[in-house]
Amino acid sequence: MAEYTHFQFHPERRRMEADSLTPPLRLLENRSMPGVGYLPKIGAGNVFVSFLEGRLAAFEESGGKPVWDFRLPHGYRAGIPDDGDLLISEHTLLTRLNGELFILDASTGKLHSRQPAPAFDLRSAILQENRLFGVYLDEADENEPVYCFAYDLARQTFSWQYAIERIPYSLAMSTQSVFLSDRKGYFTCLSAETGAQVWTTPIQEIGQYTDVDQTIRSGDVTGVPLLWGDLLIVPVEGYHVVALEQATGAVRWSQLIDIDDPRNLVCSPNGMLATVDSEIYVNLDVATGRMLSHLNIAAALRPYGGPLVTRMDVTDHMLYFSIIHKGILVALDRQSGEIPWTFQCAAAVPFNNAPVVVNGRLYLLDEDHNLYVFAGA
After folding, report:
1. Taking a C-beta distance cutoff of 8 angstroms, is the pair 342, 304 a contact?
2. CA nearest neighbour of 262 among 313, 301, 318, 224
3. Residue 308's closest CA among 273, 336, 279, 339?
4. What is the pTM (predicted TM-score) of this model?
5. Cα–Cα distance between 243 and 271 in angstroms, integer?
6. Coil, strand or helix: which one is 262?
7. Exposed, middle or buried: residue 117 (CB in 10 Å: 0-12, 13-18, 19+)?
């Protein structure tokens, strides 16, 4: 799988390479632009951008020079249902518009094929060579069952389908397996080749907790799982982060933390898990689950009008995230919990629009579809 499928992350957001970008940052006005539908994809020396007007474009990552330009039949409205978002694998770029897939050469922008598309969630999908893995609703069935699927783009047919009880936050993949939460309180591994179930692990009791109303709640998978070595790191709503063995689903470790819903979870290349909410910042060792640090950041965030923060990215020394309703980009020092730098965006920033750092630049998209690109000062 190409490392640049999602911003030098695997789709499950385990950072592949370290980055030392430290504040203060400066806005690159010649790289920033309005009318962008989704966060760009970055890799192979290019930045791939999808515009609301229906234009797809590639720019040189280093100098910003246009590489190619492709026009879809018409524009789209971002998020309904993720038309215009991009998936990339190796030299293939894919997008969807009005029930059709457009498959392009990522190097040249040349259209390879245009074909009917299965109804699926583009943001949680994964493109692996010529196969598309995703989740869809069979709208022809009156009971609307949900399926995880593998779809062969060359043959334009499903390789397999696996019935699930709910739509997961996202899929995670290794070369041989697909990982997902297919029903409440469980995590499941499927064969990427056949779609057969390899294992399923209950996590309800691991994350069982008592809420503010004194009601006992069962633990449930929340957010996007991370792959690390032979482990699958699962955030559990119920004050836990859990590591499962990819091969068997056995629990390697389980760590209780002070964050009830640790869906905002990332992992740095040196094996440090980080999760944050409006008050607490926690670091864990990914191999053992050992608590490395626990910082109260409520006082640091208070001047910027928290409490809700977006998904985040991690560099050598910093966490980057935004205050959702205020549209303030924040740099948080990973060691001290202090905030040395902020930036005020023109609009609020949705939760899923994590700032993303790639090769010394930070990319951020606000809810008015303004793309901001920053570099070190």
Report:
1. yes
2. 224
3. 279
4. 0.90
5. 13
6. coil
7. buried
Bridge partners, residue 220, by sequence: 237
Beta partners for residue 256, in sequence order: 240
- For residue 50, the Cα-to-chain-centroid distance in whole angstroms is 17
C-alpha 355/C-alpha 349 separation (Å) is 10
E strand or H helix that includes residue 298: helix 298-301
The CB density around residue 299, as the number of other CB atoms within 10 Å, is 9
At 23, which amino acid appears?
Answer: P
Strand partners, 295: 281
Least confidently predicted of 55-64, 201-210, 328-337, 359-368: 201-210
In this structure, what is the dihedral angle of CA atoms 64, 67, 73, 74, given to the nearest 10 degrees?
A: 10
Secondary structure class of 124 (helix, strand, coil): helix
Pairing assessment for the beta strands 87-89 and 92-97 based on DSSP bridges: antiparallel
Distance CA 193, CA 195 (A): 6
The string over 183-210, giving b where at least 16 C-beta atoms fall within 10 Å of a residue's C-beta and e elsewhere, is bebbbbbbebeebeebbebebeebbbbe
Amino acid at 116: P
Instruction: State the residue for tokens 């730098």.
Output: 341
Contacts of residue 365, Cβ cutoff 8 Å, sequence gap at least 6: 36, 38, 39, 349, 353, 371, 372
Q: Report the pLDDT averaged over residues 186-199.
A: 97
